Amino acid sequence: MPEVPAEEEEVPSIETVTDGYFEEEYYIGAEDAGDFLIKLGEQFKEEDEITITGDDWELPFAFGEPVKLDIEFEGDGEPELEIEVELSGRVEDETPDLT
Hints:
Elements: E1 15-16, H1 30-46, E2 49-53, E3 57-62, E4 68-74, E5 80-86
Parallel strand pairs: 1-3
Antiparallel strand pairs: 2-3, 4-5
């Protein structure tokens, strides 16, 4: 006997962020942060475009060289270590003819 198709589950729509301003901040465990950084690092090594995803968004980004790495340590009072990676967008080799 054929099965009756179940009602389709609502699949949340994914917003692809390609322009404007976008910011998300997360408080996660160190192991999860490490997993995130490993996956991000693998994308850096394998391609010249990364994609970062959240629950309902994705952010693809084609980057160029050099990559800026900033390491900042504050040891007074409550110690804090900040590691920042800054990527510039990839510049195409050829410029368009605007004439």
